[in-house]
Design a protein that fits this description.
The protein is mainly alpha-helical. It has a single domain (about 15-475), classed as Up-down Bundle (Growth Hormone, Chain: A). Helices cover about 80% and strands about 0% of the residues. The protein is built from 25 helices and no strands. Helix 9 runs antiparallel to helix 10 (about 160-185). The longest helix has about 35 residues, at about 245-280. It is globular, with a radius of gyration of 22 Å. Residues about 1-15, about 460-465 and about 470-475 have low confidence and may be disordered.
Length: about 475
């Protein structure tokens, strides 16, 4: 009997009635809303930073806001530890219901939060507290959704099915941009700056309620349910994940050979590009969001394409290609963006390789799209890769930590480090040094050490465990 047929036969008949499309939709819809909640903070940064922080300059206020934004990313690994443990002990479904509820309530609270002018510095302090809770919640969300879908997916198709979860991060950002633009157009610029910015935060509670209603109807993952029925679940996922030197070595390898490079490429291609348009090129809120939104809309189907391709040619080749292209092409891409920006040479525009051609939003959108292509290459296979790397009983815990350190710490710091480097050096291209350096290091580790995992039957802990002896023979 083949590994694929074995995996399929291990799924109880009652679980099959859920239907994989329904499972994917429920998981993806919830995760998209989680990302929407998280990204409206970033998308509104240039509009409301000065409402919570008064540093003396608009760029200083923005950096203070981004520091608060970064706090949410930094605590994500702690959320991964806390909720990963709960997910491996109690179950996948229960955990991502809790994380979504916590995330939604915090976002709604931001929409009600008084500003600096009303309560002074307490506004920023309370905001940081809410960001910490949000980061903890998001630290547990992704691992639960990715694991849940992967444990329902057949062998040799996990890349395709989990890639629908990968789409949710970009769709969440796209949805946040759409809600912001619609609200801005509906209430007008002055009203939006005064109070309209609260609307996207408050609307999120409706979206969260709908997603919770969808997710409540799901059953537990069949692989986890089978382990629990046998009494074979982990009693101490943290010890088995990080106290076991062999498993810990793969956690570290996943971080330095995959997720930290994926994280910086992801945030450069989407968030940093948006901040760059708004703060370096001085593109207004509506046009900058339209430029990035159009690029995301066109590029989003590539997540599914590259996820499916990773089932055929492997995860490693695709992730490595995305990191290498980013390292080689970021400087030329941002040089070309400068050539099509509104900032002319006589107004302090800086250029690299290209002369100034004049403001062209279509060219800027295409150049952001190229960065989104890199994002889809590194991000599409990452969920299936992480799921396949660790055994079922500690999968939630083991995969969540490297993912959220790579994305939350290395990736989440891209905007604030990038803009801080620009401010300190006066060089508009200095912000690229950080993501290029991290992606280059990760690409080398990936090429030399990362094993190919697409062949693994995750329904059998024994076969996953055998992967730990396979890096030399399976390294591609």
């Amino acid at each position: 009997m083949s590994a694929q047929s074995t995996a399929k036969s291990s799924v109880p008949p009652e679980e099959k009635t859920q239907g994989l499309p329904r499972i994917i939709f429920a998981s993806a819809a919830g995760t998209m809303i989680e990302w929407y909640d998280f990204y409206i903070f970033g998308s509104l940064a240039s509009v409301i930073a000065s409402k919570f922080y008064h540093t003396g300059t608009p760029l200083g206020d923005l950096i203070a806001w981004l520091a608060t934004f970064a706090v949410g990313f930094i605590v994500r690994p702690f959320g991964a530890i806390v909720f990963g443990r709960v997910g491996d002990i109690v179950g996948r479904k229960y955990t991502f219901l809790v994380t979504m509820t916590l995330m939604g309530l915090c976002t709604f609270a931001v929409g009600l939060l008084p500003t600096f002018d009303t309560i002074g510095e307490a506004a920023g302090i309370i905001l940081i507290g809410l960001r910490i809770l949000q980061g903890l919640a998001l630290g547990g969300e992704y691992g639960g959704a990715a694991t849940y879908v992967a444990e329902h997916s057949p062998d040799r198709r996990r890349g395709f099915f989990t890639s629908w979860i990968q789409i949710t991060a970009t769709l969440g950002l796209f949805l946040s941009l759409g809600v912001i633009l619609i609200t801005r157009q509906s209430v007008g610029e002055e009203a939006f700056k005064a109070w309209g910015w609260r609307v996207p935060f408050l609307i999120s509670i409706i979206l969260v309620g709908l997603s919770l209603w969808i997710r409540f109807s799901l059953r537990e993952s069949p692989m986890y349910a089978k382990l629990k029925q046998k009494g074979a679940t982990s009693k101490n996922p943290l010890k088995e994940s990080f106290g076991n030197p062999l498993n810990l070595s793969y956690v570290i390898l996943a971080l330095f050979g995959a997720t930290m490079g994926q994280g910086v490429v992801w945030y450069t291609g989407q968030f940093y590009a948006l901040y760059y348009l708004q703060n370096i090129f001085k593109v207004d809120l509506i046009n900058s969001n339209l430029i990035v939104g159009a690029a995301l809309l066109v590029g989003t189907p590539l997540f599914v394409y590259f996820g499916d391709l990773s089932d055929k040619i492997g995860r490693k080749k695709i992730m490595l290609t995305g990191m290498v292209l980013a390292v080689l092409l970021y400087y030329p891409i941002y040089g070309a963006m400068a050539a099509f920006s509104p900032i002319t040479p006589d107004k302090g525009g800086q250029y690299f390789l290209f002369p100034y051609y004049g403001y062209n939003p279509f060219a800027l959108s295409f150049l952001v799209f190229l960065q989104v292509v890199f994002v889809t290459l590194v991000y599409a296979p990452i969920a299936s890769f992480l799921v396949e790397l660790f055994p079922t009983k500690i999968r939630y815990t083991s995969m969540s930590l490297p993912y959220h350190i790579g994305n939350g710490v290395f990736g989440g710091m891209v905007p604030i480090i990038g803009l801080s480097l620009i401010k300190s050096t006066g060089n508009n291209f200095a912000g690229l040094w950080y993501p290029m350096g991290i992606a280059a290091i990760c690409a080398v580790v990936c090429y030399l050490k990362i094993p190919e995992t697409s062949h693994v039957d995750i329904s059998s802990d024994a076969s996953v465990a055998s992967l730990h002896d396979a890096p030399k023979s399976n390294n591609q």
